[in-house]
Amino acid sequence: MPTPGSHTTHTTAPGVIFTDCGSLKAAAARAPARKRTKSATGRLPVLIKGKRVRTIDVHAHCLIPKALTLLPAAEAKSLYPPTKGSKEFDVALDERLAGMDAQGIDLEVLSINPWWYDKDRELVTKVIQLQNEGLAELCARQPDRLAAFASLALQFPDLAVRQLEDAVRKYGLKGAAIGGSVAGYEFADPKFHPVWAKAQELDVTLFIHPQSTPELSKRFKGNGWLSNVIGNPLDTTIALEHLIFEGTFDKFPRLKVCAAHGGGFLGSYAPRMDYGCFINPDGCNPDIKLKKKPTEYMRQIFFDSLVFTPEALRHLVAEVGASQVVIGTDHPIPWNQHPVDHVMATKSLSDKEKAAILGGNAAKLLGIKF
Length: 370
Ligand SMILES: [Zn+2]
Hints:
The radius of gyration is 20 Å and the shape is globular. The strands form 4 sheets. It has a 5-stranded parallel beta sheet. The protein has a 3-stranded parallel beta sheet with strand order 5-6-7. A two-stranded antiparallel ribbon has the order 1-2.
């Protein structure tokens, strides 16, 4: 697995991935004529045994500066993460496309991490309107390379229902990006059921992106940026387990949920869920009778591939199935600069499974046609 800044032997130029020991020349000769030639870096397609594979990254960040003008300047500034790639949260199209080219990504699904769950109704209405319009405008500028998940004011579920409907029907967005919880409320809380019902009705995806488990901020202090390294995977894990154990997936069996970072810790340590209520029935609600074993719900959830090593990806696929995994990079934050190599280097996957994870699964999930 490549480390930041390195390339594996599979990659000889940005976006050119060899899977059958070909040479650059041979692969270029096999490549179909390219319809899209706008990239500045001369991106070439990803090939598996000479066959073009479209790649989709469902986990990519941005901010819409126009929406941030509604906030005090200092607060707006604080929304840019203290990380590498932060400046690119304001999308400069050529720069964004060049970054995707370097990663071998054909299409990126943009989203905005929710920062507005504590805002009042009037302000958040304006914020979400500007953001969803802004996302739609970005996608319209390069529709073959960009798609987006909408923003929703989930603290006002009735408003969020209308925003989701507008985002999908009016703006063509692919679903919505949600956090890990909403101002102290779990997604499994019945107050959010109307939103999940609307997502199910529209057949669109909810992308769960964590927000650091803020309740544990004191314990995350110290060396190592634990608020992210532990806080983010934990936040996703808590969100997903509540959705499973509170019966939300039974109530909305066709709800499409996609979890960032391989589902956090759940992706690597799921089977413990199947034993809890057996070991301690008093810790479980006798009124909730799940239709399936807790781990079985993972086979209807989607997980991004941001788990770093081929071994971790092999395990995730073993737990949830190759049909449930899609590429996630966190672009422009450089957590995974070689997402295609990561999939290709996972030897346990068949070519068919690799192609599905690289883009086929996401295309199906999001209704994307190339
Ligand atoms: Zn992210």
